[in-house]
Amino acid sequence: MDVPFLSLRDVNARYVDELKAAAARVIDSGWYIMGDELAAFEREFAAYCGVGHAVGVGNGLDALSLILRGYKEMGRLRDGDEVIVPGNTFIATFLAISANRLVPVPVEPDPATCNIDPAHVAAAVGTRTRAIMPVHLYGQLADMAALADIADRHRLLLIEDAAQAHGASDGARRAGAFGDAAGFSFFPAKNLGALGDGGAVVTNDDELAARVTALRNYGSEVKYHHLYQGLNSRLDEMQAAMLRVKLAHLDEEVARRRQVARRYRDGIRHPQIALPRVQAEERHAWHLFVVRCAQRDALRDHLGAHGVQSQVHYPVPAHRQPAYASLHDAQLPVTEQMHREVLSLPMSPVMGEEAIARVIDACNAFGGAA
Ligand SMILES: *Cc1c(COP(=O)(O)O)cnc(C)c1O
C-alpha cells in the first residue's frame, strides 16, 4: 500500500467517539446556525491564540477578505490601496485582496525559509501601500518582528494569513497574535481541520471584531436591521462542535508533526534534495514538509514509483495565473524558481514509523534525472 500524502480518515478516526457525541449534541439541540457551539468555540480559539476576539466565518478566504472589508468600513482602507503579499502563496491570499478592490503587490520570499523577505517588503512600500499580509507558509512563522517594524514605520496594517500555521509560536505568542488581525482556515486538511469548510478572524481590535461579526451575517447586528452590505459567511454549529473536539488535541498533533519532521530532517541525506530550513522548533507547526529539488518532477515520479505520494504547493505562482493577467509583468525570479523546485512529502500527525522510514528510504534512493 502507498504511503498516503494525508489520510483525513485516519486523522479523525482517533476522535471518532468524541466527534459523534458532539454531532449528536448539535442534532439534538435543534439549533444549527449561530448558537452555543459557535460562541464556545470562538471563546476557546481566541484563548488558544491569546487574542481578545475570534469570529467564526465560512472559510479561510472569507476570513482574510472580511478583515480587509472590515478595515474598509472603518475607513482604514480604500479602493485601489496596495497590500504587499508574498509572491509564493496559495491564491486565496491574493483573492481576498482583489475581492475588496485593493491591489496585491507580490514580493519575493527569502529562499532559505520560503517566507516573505522583509527587505523586499521595505523596498516595495510606496505611497499607496496601506497593509502587509504575510503568510506563515507551510506552517512556519514569518519574520513578524521585522515586518512589525516596517508596518510601524509606515503606519501600515499588518494582517497575518495564518491558514497554515495553527499552533506555531515564537515561545511567547502564537500565530494569529502578531498583527492587527489574522485569518485562519479550518479546511479539513489544515492543522486544525473541520469536517467541512470553516474559518476564523482573530484580533485584539474590538471595532474590527464587531464589524466582521456583523459583516459575516448580512451586515447585521440586530436581526433585519443592516448596517453594511454584508454577506452570509458563518461557521455553523456542526463545524464549531467538531472544531471544539479537535482544538483540544491540536498541541499534541503539532508535537507529533514536529517528531515526523525531525525524523525526516535527520534521515533524508541526499545532495540533490534540500531540506526545509527551520529557525526554531516552536516556530514551525509543519502543516507541510516541503523539500526543494532541481529535478522536482523526476523526484516526484521516483517517489510515486516507490509508493510514496507527494504534492506540489504550488505549481503556478499567482502572478502567472490567467486570473492575474494584470500581474504578468511582475519580475519574481526567486518565487518562480521556488514553484519549479518545491515538493511536499507526506505529513500528518498519524504517520507511523514504518511510513516515515519508507519516505526517507525512497528519498535517499533517488537517482536524479535519467
Ligand atoms: C487554505 C489557505 C487559505 C484559504 O482557506 P480556505 O478555507 O480554503 O478558504 C488561505 N491562505 C492560505 C495560505 C491557505 O493555505
TrEMBL record:
Q: Which SUPFAM superfamilies match?
A: PLP-dependent transferases
- Identify residues that carry N6-(pyridoxal phosphate)lysine: 190
- Where do the catalytic residues lie? 190
A biological process (GO) annotation for this entry?
Answer: polysaccharide biosynthetic process
Species of the source: Dyella japonica A8
Q: Which InterPro entries match?
A: DegT/StrS_aminotransferase (IPR000653), PyrdxlP-dep_Trfase (IPR015424), PyrdxlP-dep_Trfase_major (IPR015421), PyrdxlP-dep_Trfase_small (IPR015422)
Per the record, the similarity remark reads: Belongs to the DegT/DnrJ/EryC1 family.
User: Which molecular function term from Gene Ontology is one that the record holds?
Assistant: transaminase activity
Q: Which domain of life is it from?
A: Bacteria
Q: What is this protein called?
A: Aminotransferase
